[in-house]
Amino acid sequence: MFNRPQSSHSKDRVAYCFNHDAGNFHYGQGHPMKPPRLTLTHNLVMNYGLYKHMDVFHTRRAFDEEIANFHSQDYIEFLKRVTPNNVNNFTKFLSRYNLGIDDCPIFEGIYDFCRLSCGGSLEAARKLTSGQTDLAINWSGGLHHARKSEASGFCYTNDIVLAALELLRYFPRVLYVDIDVHHGDGVQEAFYASNRVLSVSFHKYDGHFFPGTGSLDEIGTHLGKYYSLNVPLLDYIDDNSYAYIFKHVLSMVIETFRPGAIIMQCGTDSLAGDKLGTFNISVHGHGECVRFLKSFNIPLMTVGGGGYTIRNVSRCWTYETSIMANTPIPDVLPENEYMEYFGPDYRLNPPIVDNHLENANSRAYLDQLRIQIAEILRYMETAPSVQMQELPPDLQGFMENGGNWKVDEEEDDIINDTLDYKKRESPLYYKRRDKELTEVHINELYDDSNDQDHDGNTDDELEIEV
Ligand SMILES: [Zn+2]
């Protein structure tokens, strides 16, 4: 039924990238994003003995220069400087960078957290490009909403974009697959005008659910036209429906795009019972997507993402680690330091699915999505840009306008008319672009009138050379 290649006979090598420090951050009282879920996950992975079947790497923090491959220098400098104690000195920059509000608070060690997340994904990508591994994992990555100069949806820096750029140094084409309940808008935006990264996001979409983007008619622009695919789903989708649409779409995508490597964002807020999500998927249903992508024997890295019922986040990423490591593990959880989190069932795949919830995604709806996505892929195949470069170009030039390109509305209208889709109704995606995103000179960061000591430096700032 699906274009699934034969499994390879040799056992895949798996690089598990982790830094214990990543779990030691606190977004603030009552904030749904809880970094300790990474510690919980690592705890289960270790206690199941999965480390025996993988190469475990203690990853380093990303350097500023590495993060600057996507993010603007002024935004990075701001993240480095701002702390909960000095945030009042920087109020005029908070709205510019979308920081300090409920979603993206300033917390202690914010930039260190970013460096750890990015460092892990860069390490995972480099293990793939160097040929040291076939599969790589970084559960502390997957922060898909962050933009070039702006935080969004609990995400400050976009480790996925950095990892994709790293993969593009070696692989001509990279596929990005996102199964978080929210649209992978930050990654889509970064590569919206590129034909070398194909972004496919499965998410809840009703025009209002965060981040408000991800409709079927966001298909890319310029060279990237037809290289962004969105699968807008409705409430309470179950395992069968999810597998049905996921496998159909990815089979078509891989056959057409022929990626050299895949990044899979495994946000677990798509699980049933998530505090923010509205899907009805089990741990096994979520993991089935990983199993399916892995079966193509294409270099694959998985990263984390959302996930706000943290006992289930850690269960799911542990299960998916076992799939990557090709090592079945028992459903009964092993003795571990945090056992009390997993009661009353103490199982890996607990009964989280609610059978009383009605799946709003009918088979007819899913088939319609499938047909429309097949149609976009047909355009992609016949587009001139399908003459794909085999030699990766200079990345600096490649990212010159990355994340800050302007939408050619006229061209988009033509695309939409051609595909006979509902006319774009100025989605939030583009509305948000009207925020001024001009580069900020680093010196500006010193100029705040509230600067306490009037020498341009607050107490705990680092020396920088401008
Ligand atoms: Zn999410």
UniProtKB/TrEMBL annotation:
Region (Disordered): 447-466
Catalytic reaction list: N(6)-acetyl-L-lysyl-[histone] + H2O = L-lysyl-[histone] + acetate
Residue sites binding substrate per the record: 103, 153, 308
EC number: 3.5.1.98
Transmembrane regions: none
Class of enzymatic activity (EC top level): hydrolase
Protein localization: Nucleus
GO BP term, pick one: epigenetic regulation of gene expression
Residues engaged in binding a divalent metal cation: 180, 182, 269
Gene Ontology CC annotation, any one: Set3 complex
Pfam families for the chain: Hist_deacetyl (PF00850)
Keyword set, alphabetical order: Chromatin regulator, Hydrolase, Metal-binding, Nucleus, Transcription, Transcription regulation
UniProt-recorded Gene Ontology molecular function terms: histone deacetylase activity, hydrolytic mechanism; metal ion binding
Domain Histone deacetylase residues, every copy: 31-323
Active site per UniProt: 145 (proton acceptor)
Family statement: Belongs to the histone deacetylase family. HD Type 1 subfamily.
Protein name: Histone deacetylase
Organism: Piromyces finnis
Lineage of source species: Eukaryota, Fungi, Fungi incertae sedis, Chytridiomycota, Chytridiomycota incertae sedis
